[in-house]
Write a structure and sequence with these properties.
Layout lengths: L7 E5 L9 E5 L4 E5 L8 E6 L6 E9 L2 E6 L11 E4 L5 E7 L14 E7 L5 E3 L14 E4 L2 E7 L5 E4 L7 H7 L4 E4 L10
Amino acid sequence: MGIERARVVEVHSAGSATRRVGAGYLIGERLVLTAGGVVDRRGSTGVRPAGTAVWYESSAVWAAGDVALLEVDEVLAPPGAMRWGQVSGHRPVPVAAMGFPPATSRPDRFRDAGQFFGHLQPDFAVEASGASRLAGEGLHGAALFAGAELVGVLLAAGGHRAVAVAAFAGDPRFVAIAGDVDLIPVSAPASGLSIL
């Protein structure tokens, strides 16, 4: 499955900690996984699917540390199950995400998502690849994928790091809202030749 453009959303709230536009990912028909810094935890947060001009209201229904879950007033995502992953091993894992050019206020015109490519380090620092067409705070809250599995939430304010899905997958409040999260092991692909 991997990243589905139809599930990528812009996220903005004037009452958020960053007051900037970030990114999120629809993990359900009305549920958006994003960074806590772009969410107004006491009020309404706007979300808009990539490539559209309409903003929808949402409210925070769960938050833990740097990650939050929003519930949108409208059904926005196509039905389908998510594939969740847990990164293991001691080598960097290739990852991808989709986000938006940085913006300090909620844009009125539609904007499409851009691609980010990089490597997730064992300490969950994320190094951008030269192939990335996007960098900066517009990626804050983007879903980080290793192949077909969603493995983390990208935090791009002040550098790139990630919060692993495994860090919140067992939270009973998250599971009560989003459903069970079955983690598939993900590691760096093998390199070199092996002789049998």
